[in-house]
Design brief:
This is HTH-type transcriptional regulator DegA. This protein has about 325 residues and is of the alpha/beta class. The protein is about 45% helix and about 15% strand. The chain has helices at about 5-10, 15-20, 30-45, 50-55, 70-85, 100-115, 125-130, 160-170, 185-200, 220-230, 245-255, 290-305; strands spanning about 60-65, 90-95, 120, 140-145, 155, 180-185, 210-215, 240, 265-270, 285, 315, 320. The strands form 2 sheets. A 6-stranded parallel β-sheet has the order 2-1-3-4-5-11, with helices on both faces. A 6-stranded mixed β-sheet has the order 7-6-8-9-10-12, sandwiched between helices.
Amino acid sequence: MSSIKDVAKAANVSTATVSRVLANHPHVRQEVRERVLAAVAQLEYRPNLIARNLRSQQSNTLGLIVSDIRNPFFTAVSRAVEDTAYAHGYNVLLCNTDENPEKELLYLQLMGDEQVAGVIFSPTLHTLNRFHELNLSFPTVLIDRSLRSGDVDAVLLDNVGAGYMLAKHLINQGYRRIGAIFGEASTTGRERQRGFEDALRDAGISMQPEYLRFVRPRTEAGHSTTLDLLRLSQPPEAIFTSNSLLTAGALQAIRERRLQMPEQIGLVGFDDTAWASLVQPAITVLAQPTDEIGRSATELVLQRVADPQRPTRKIILQGELIVRESSVEQRVRA
């Protein structure tokens, strides 16, 4: 196995120069950097990351803890985090919690053990409620889920405004009985519920409790809950869902019942997945700026690494309403 001394000898530089190149230090001449990297490749050198971390007390790894990697939103955000981290010379350690607080705690402990430089985290409501008890030893940026009180960097969607925009679209299309399915595990669902109900209230529409459901944010839950709503004596004229997995489940249930969209029922949801524009009719969605969320969160955590004393920042981003055929219905209602 090659050592750092072997690399230095092959590149005709000092071991310190090799270390600077491997750490992506900016003050290295390009010709020297290329010579060292060529020697690394030729000798198949693999640095001892554990030893490096012990010496520096900081790694070049960022942690990313997401609540459900199957959710296309988190897949897209993860890609943006990885791209941005790579551009800054960092690696990403990805963990998936399945909205399980026990797994969250396990992975947070792992991040401390690995001495990561910082963590980007989408916590459950349970963990948010005890966030300050965690006493995390590394810089942390929250994404998707908000901490009501506390001095923590965060990158969030304006969920209340997004929920309002999506519900208002349905109302403008003439829908009045609207079933709404929200995820129960995080603050996100509650905030989107607020926007949804605000839109109904402003339009003078009474929210019927039987049309409002909180479930686990999974495809199966979206499917079974939509079927329940469609069995009501007065079923909803449209379904509003708070994430793409719930939307997929709702679409499955609507197809099982052989209902035509948008004539017999409308459907809208969050996140512009690849399939949303491909199915017929295509689905109206509230698209989140996933690239900007991932990029901003990574830049925030790196800024915190560079300057631990800087003031915290909360970045609030806006979504985009993409209107498609699943909800566009030109009919007049009494």
